[in-house]
Specification:
The protein contains ten helices and eight strands. By secondary structure, the chain is α/β, with parallel strands linked by helices. An eight-stranded mixed sheet has the order 7-5-6-4-1-2-3-8, sandwiched between helices.
Length: 313
């Protein structure tokens, strides 16, 4: 039997944690009873600098049940960093770790299949959504568009997979060697290699509380993923510059021919439109290049991705 750790990042989840803990304890008990998990298996909650009673609730769970442990970060490090902190902590104790969100929208009943595939030699098992009927139309379209754009840019990413996955000891050891400050685990984990599997599931509605990924944060997360794993936007800028230069030459020739033919008509519309167009394109290109330079700046500083304030085991 394997020691299995559930790694659950939490940020202001006081409304959802009671139901989450109840269901996870039931699932952990089922895994132990079926022989899929050892009695030393644990639920590891990671408090990502919550401003509510999340940590107090986690400590209460621990005092009531030895199967629950907690990790408190010194400040809000972000979901990906909190998840990494939990995985690296679980790596010291577990044979495999399963990451999942605190709202339990991901179907925990398929965890049995995760472990079965792990037993068949898969070091990484991805949870992939069957459909997105619970999403709003806008979120469904933007999410599917994000995965398609990432694929088009050459990023090896699992379609409709978020952060619901199992990682074995070897995969966790390999993940430790990836030192990126700008974390995008959905892109990093496929790079690790090893034999992998996929488990399909249906995602349910959030039971309590509010989503911790509003539109602004979703956009920021998507941009982080693109700029962390692909330089194609820079190549697109280069190609765009070549195209505009070519069109500019044609425009100059046309203007010169018109002038020599005596049919040139002075006007502001074409001039103003071209200035605004080229100015906008230039600012866009500078912004994209600046985004990459900002990434380099963050990586060069090599600041810690998270600081652990307290660990209860």
């Amino acid at each position: 039997m394997h020691i299995v750790y559930f790694v659950v990042p939490c940020f202001n989840e006081e409304e959802a944690l009671s139901e989450t803990n109840r269901r996870l304890l039931i699932k952990l008990g089922q895994l132990v009873d079926s022989g899929r998990a050892d009695e030393k298996s644990r639920i590891l909650y990671v408090d990502d600098g919550s401003r509510d009673r999340t940590w107090d609730i986690i400590m209460g769970f621990h005092s009531e049940c030895a199967s629950v442990c907690g990790l408190k970060l010194a400040h809000n490090a972000g979901h990906q960093n909190a998840l990494l902190a939990g995985l690296m902590t679980a790596r010291e104790y577990a044979d495999c770790a399963i990451s999942l969100d605190a709202d339990l929208q991901d179907d925990i009943e398929v965890i049995d299949e995760f472990i079965d595939q792990y037993n068949r030699g898969c070091e990484v098992v991805y949870g992939v959504r069957n459909k997105r009927e619970t999403d709003t139309f806008f979120k469904r379209v933007t999410a599917q568009g994000f995965y398609k754009v990432m694929k088009h840019l050459g990023v090896d990413i699992i379609y409709n997979h978020a952060d619901y996955r199992l990682m074995g000891k070897s995969a966790l050891d390999a993940l430790r060697d990836y030192k990126e400050v700008n974390l995008f685990l959905r892109g990093i984990v496929p790079l690790i290699g090893y034999k992998s599997g996929i488990v399909y599931y249906n995602r349910s509605e959030r039971q309590a509380g509010e989503s911790k990924y509003p539109f602004k944060k979703m956009i920021s997360f998507a941009l982080d993923g693109i700029t962390s794993f692909s330089v194609k936007p820079l190549r697109i800028i280069s190609n765009l510059g070549i195209l505009i230069s070519f069109l500019s030459i044609i425009g100059i020739l046309y203007a010169l021919i018109s002038y020599l033919a005596g049919v040139a008509v002075p006007g502001w519309t074409a001039i103003v439109a071209s200035i605004w167009l080229l100015g906008g394109i230039q600012l866009l290109c500078i912004g994209v290049v600046g985004g990459y330079i900002g990434k380099i700046y963050s990586e060069v500083k090599s600041r810690p991705r998270y600081n652990i304030e307290e660990f209860i085991d």
